[in-house]
Amino acid sequence: MQTENYLIRKSSLEKLFTNLIGNGKTIYAPKAKGDLALFAKVDAFEEITEDYIVTANSAKSLVFPRAEKLFSYKKSKENTEINDAASDTFPDVVLWGTRPCDAAAFIPLNNNFNEDTPDIIFSKRSQKVLVMSFSCSRCNEYCFCTSVNGGPGNTTGSDILLTKLSEGDYLAEVMTEKGQLLVKENSDLFEGAPEEGKERNLAQVTTRFNQEEIQAKLQNLFENPLWDEQSRACLGCGACTYVCPVCSCFDIQDEAHGNKGTRLRCWDSCGFGLFTLHTSGHNPRDKQGGRWRQRILHKFLYLPNKSKIAGCVGCGRCGKSCPADINILDTLTALQGEPHHG
Amino acid sequence: MMDLIKRATELLESDAVKVVIGYGKGSSTDRTRAIFVTQVADCENLVFNSQCIHNLAVYLTKAEIKKLGKPAIVAPVPVLRSILQLAAENQLTENDLVILGVTPESQLIEFESFAGIETFLDTHRIKIDQKYQETIEKIRSMPVAERFAWWVKELEPCFKCYACRSACPLCYCTRCTVENNQPQWISVASHPLGNLEWHVMRAMHLAGRCTDCEACYNACPMGIPIHLLTKSMLQDVNENFGTYGPTLKKDNTLSSFKPDDKESFIR
Amino acid sequence: MDNKNIYIPYLMRIEKITLEAPGVKTFRLKFENEQEAEAFSFKAGQFGEYSIVGVGESTFCIASSPTRKGYIECTFRQAGKVTSALSLAEEGDVIGFRGPYGNTFPIDEWKGKSLLFIAGGIALPPMRCVIWNALDLRENFKDITIVYGAKSVDDLVYKHELEEWGKRPDIRLVTTVDPGGETPEWKGEVGFVPSVLEKAAPSSQNTIAIVCGPPIMIKFTFPVLEKLGFTEENIYTTLENRMKCGFGKCGRCNVGEVYVCKDGPVFSYDQLKLLPAEY
Fold first, then answer.
1. Is A342 part of any domain?
2. A65 touches chain B (CB under 8 A)
3. Per-domain residue ranges for chain C?
4. Measured by CB atoms within 10 angstroms of the end CB, which terminus of chain A is less buried, N or C?
5. Residue A341 lies in a domain
6. Closest in C54, C79, C256 to A261, CB measured
7. What is the pTM of this model?
């Protein structure tokens, strides 16, 4: 579909919000919490904050929940009854305030769940999600979207991208039919395309490394001491995985209550020591260095080898949330041959 | 912190230690990170300032770090407290590490023994900040149903990344309770029950052990005030079992039984 | 089948349980649903996720041959949470099964060749499907040799089938137990599989070798095969790794760039050599 451009006035945003709620949509947007902004359900326009570069958590839980019911069951001695969760109804959701990096992450996420054997729970849920992103007018030292084929005004993965212009009103770029439908339903709020282009209103994000060069270098670095060195301070938690908008590794867990229960698909992390542990006790990745290597190789070698797209959108959340201040940029710029320091 | 760099250099040069665990520049101007200095030339990377908030004691029980050899560890007061508690729990042996204590006035004191740390910490007791005491009071005064709802809401952003556990020096179990699946005591998934189970269980396992370093809160990527649970636990321990140290005396609140305990079922 | 929820298991009734060795059982499973039974097919080498609904899933190969219709079989050792729950199941109980997943032994390409099967301990089950597949199509293959060993006589699995295979003139069967694992009545070899293989010295002429066993056994078997003249493309194995989804989405079982569940579990030795040491 050809992208259509509109103008939406700053003063119309609240009206749009109200309309969407009135149309039965659930809206998730950045909410302030101390120094952080968290992506959370909002019921009132005032709850939304504009004071964030990226939210602490990503928006991926709206298409890939932390715990997703796969089926529920009821057991008796003679019989097991299974209730398919794919026949549930999934909520109409609007993601309001994702950044271009967050939106770009939906591409590798969709790829993982839709390719080969399609996960219909994932696709049914994500079909009901509309992504309305806001361009970035500023960035911080953790951002590196431009190093992974992204950008502060990138439209990939968004249904609608809003860019604040110099007068305070917004350029609205509409990329998909889903976005067009929203515009149609709120046509009084969307005016003809503005004259002003978006480039001058976007942040300058320095390129830190060349993704293709890194991919080439990683081909031969499996047995290299850098993995142990770079992850020495790593505490082995899942924070980087869970804040990442792309990471989608999961566990399958049964939760039983008497003779009834559910089977869930829930978040997991390759950074945990038990992730690859065999019941026999053998663990192919028994050191943190091996697990750090897996993270980098999966994102910057295996995925781009397969689909040309890296498993990273450069949002910088992992570095910012890491309790040990392990920064993926250190590894990537070291691979490039340039030392990085904050 | 020139004294620190000088001492670290001496220790590495003389082969008294194989690694200096300290703080170095972080990924932004307001952060530091743990560094593991094994080469004399890298000692100049050691820093010490108000941003040194990570509890480095967490690395003393890690297998991969132990393999590096005898460490020296830069230890501001919170780290000293953790070292003392770890020593009380038999996780550290006195001559297997060099302790480069740093006072709140940024003076370097090298401790020769755990007993020396205990004496020093006697004059630097754990004190729960007034603002936390007020918040804890406020929560405690809520009726149970309201308090439960308050915690479920506070814990909603938690996705069980276990950063809190990983950053805590006293969570050194090689197999955490949540990692047992026969039986699965604590749900794996993140949902209101799973989140609550995890945090309550962890607070209970820390009763009488937590040294209030706030590493758990600092580690939480979602800014959840889980340290309120541990501080409240600390207050309970103080009120019921006498003011908590830490101390070298093997006196873990939840695993010590005394004849004069008021519960009679143990007799 | 784009509309199917890929996580929903087939319901299978346990028709027969055989105790193979201490802690090791074989289940013969029949589909509860006739139509599902009709529509189901698989090839030798594939695996499934077997579950006690409410406890969890575990990965085992399909140990019966695709030439046998109407049922599938799996063999497992009681080791952890799910296998312990499965061990408590009785004939007539209903369990879950998702599959078939994974790639297959290229048995069609092996027509006209000789086959050498080498297995150790609990690793015979993944090979049993392809052994029976070959035996059910015996005329397609020249010589068939099976070298199988276990820690002790008790630990040998499929004892009845070993007896059957031993009696057949169209199979050369060499069984062995580790030194110290023999009983006074034991008539087979005594020694580790790699050395017994070297002694048996089957010809590598126009032969495909299929090996499955614990990592230590594999490590010492490959050099013997090379010594006997086998080339890398003619040696096959099947890998195992911790799995959850079975279809390449959960991210757990990869060895470098390949997923054991999707790109494997069957690999030829020349493919295996390209993979990093991560399994």
1. no
2. no
3. 10-101, 107-238
4. N
5. no
6. C54
7. 0.95
